[in-house]
């Protein structure tokens, strides 16, 4: 098996990390707009303790982003020149329904995305829309408590149907939720959840997860009626968990970690809750509210492909006490002593992508789609505005090499590969643009100061050759 002739090379961004213009043309506040650029942004929001709502004189990076709201034509033209075939972007829910529970959508918000899709069509770039990418109207957080309230399912479905009806002839690939499993790790960002000190936080998270899973299935049901050719993907923050040693206890701990991470994709692919979750709920005194009809909806409306992000593998042990820790996508993990240090904030593990692809394909037997992979690290321009980012080229080349091996040597079916932040953007974890991912450098600092001009990095020309050769030219 080789990479398909119509393999979808491309890149991905989100609305809240790029658009800026956070209250322009009728847009409402989102949960993401509340995140300051400090170390509290990834922490749980505890209503009876100091939290992000009490922050003053802070910079809120989503308010300016990289001004994609005004620069989208220039940015898409640069991406088209690089040769990308697919562009994944998200739509800002409060740009369409400013309060979330509005009776009518905001036409000015829809007009912006109309224009983005016109530009993509002009360059024959396949759009992929993420309906909710860490984004919920703040009104739904304040009034209903975010995704833990079942009413939010109804408001979300109204929003999703509005988009799918409007773009039924322009968009084929849909992702209802970005990295749904992140509601367990960053619940305010992933689900608009804020907690009081004495409540069962785990129960609230799983209640929100159930509502998102239900909304996902209902969106697929509605979407297939609007256009039977729509293709829906689950979206998982993926990465195989390794045992710290080959001790059986460590192997079991890694197995448990993977099971709970894959719970979200299990439900979206198989249409039912896995058996182990009942025992887990009982053990942790979790009692979520469900209706019998929910499980019929989940069963009958499953995904067409498995999309996922991959940045790094994880590692765990039966006892993590005393073991060195490191960060990975959205949470902390045991540091893997067999992975070399790098200039990435996360452990770099290219073979882990191949392992993860095999894990997911063997488990689900559905086409895979890598919709995020990339290296977030500082870049520096020289006196001629050149950015020599050989480290990014090396990271991506090693990952693409392993991706191709998974296809050609292991028989994994893969639809496409999208790098994360194909143009520099504001990072989720730190809120900093200086943690750069892009092939295109944006002249802006962490406080939004700069010309906002775009410059092609060395990696831009490298990825151009990768796409042109369909992955044959990597090094």
TrEMBL record:
SUPFAM superfamilies membership: (Trans)glycosidases
Positions annotated as active site in the UniProt record: 372
Family: Belongs to the glycosyl hydrolase 1 family.
GO cellular component labels: cytosol
Top-level taxonomic group: Bacteria
Name assigned to this protein: 6-phospho-beta-glucosidase
PANTHER family: 6-PHOSPHO-BETA-GLUCOSIDASE (PTHR10353:SF296), GLYCOSYL HYDROLASE (PTHR10353)
GO biological process: carbohydrate catabolic process
Keywords carried by this UniProt record: Glycosidase, Hydrolase
Gene Ontology MF term list: beta-glucosidase activity
Pfam families, sorted: Glyco_hydro_1
């Amino acid at each position: 098996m080789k990479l398909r002739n119509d393999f979808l090379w491309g890149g991905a961004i989100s609305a809240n990390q790029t658009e800026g213009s956070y209250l322009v043309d009728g847009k409402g506040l989102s949960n993401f707009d509340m995140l300051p650029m400090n170390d509290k942004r990834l922490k749980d929001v505890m209503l009876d303790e100091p939290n992000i709502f009490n922050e003053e004189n802070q910079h809120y990076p989503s308010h300016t982003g990289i001004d994609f709201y005004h620069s989208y034509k220039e940015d898409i033209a640069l991406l088209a020149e690089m040769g990308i075939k697919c562009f994944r972007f998200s739509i800002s829910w409060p740009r369409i329904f400013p309060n979330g529970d509005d009776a009518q959508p905001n036409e000015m918000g829809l007009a912006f995305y109309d224009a983005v899709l016109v530009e993509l069509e002009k360059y024959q770039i396949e759009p992929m829309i993420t309906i909710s990418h860490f984004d919920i109207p703040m009104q739904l957080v304040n009034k209903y408590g975010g995704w833990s309230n079942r009413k939010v399912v109804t408001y979300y479905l109204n929003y999703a149907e509005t988009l799918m009806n409007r773009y039924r002839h322009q968009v084929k690939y849909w992702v209802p939720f970005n990295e749904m499993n992140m509601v367990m790790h960053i619940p305010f960002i992933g689900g608009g959840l804020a907690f009081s000190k004495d409540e069962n936080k785990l129960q609230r998270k799983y209640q929100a997860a159930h509502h998102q899973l239900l909304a996902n299935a209902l969106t697929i049901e509605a979407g297939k009626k609007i256009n039977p050719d729509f293709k829906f993907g689950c979206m998982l923050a993926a990465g195989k968990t390794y045992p710290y040693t080959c001790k059986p206890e460590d192997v079991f701990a890694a197995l448990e970690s993977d099971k709970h991470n894959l719970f979200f994709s299990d439900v979206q692919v198989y249409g039912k809750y896995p058996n182990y979750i009942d025992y887990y709920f009982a053990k942790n005194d979790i009692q979520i509210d469900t209706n019998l009809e929910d499980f019929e909806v989940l069963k009958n409306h499953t995904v067409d492909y498995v999309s996922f992000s991959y940045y790094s593998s994880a590692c765990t042990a039966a006892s993590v006490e005393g073991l060195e820790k490191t960060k990975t996508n959205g949470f902390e993990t045991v540091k893997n002593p067999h992975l070399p240090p790098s200039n990435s904030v996360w452990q770099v593990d290219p073979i882990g992508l191949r392992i993860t692809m095999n894990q997911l394909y063997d488990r689900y037997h559905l086409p895979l789609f890598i919709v995020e992979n990339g290296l977030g690290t500082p870049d520096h321009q020289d006196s001629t505005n050149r950015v020599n980012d050989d480290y990014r080229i090396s990271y991506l080349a090693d990952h693409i090499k392993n991706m191709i091996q998974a296809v050609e040597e292991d028989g994994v079916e893969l639809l496409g590969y999208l790098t994360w932040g194909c143009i520099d953007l504001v990072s989720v974890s730190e809120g900093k643009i200086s943690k750069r991912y892009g092939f295109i450098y944006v002249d802006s600092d962490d406080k939004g100061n700069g010309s906002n001009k775009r410059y092609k990095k060395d990696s831009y020309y490298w990825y151009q050759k990768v796409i042109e050769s369909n992955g044959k030219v990597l090094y």
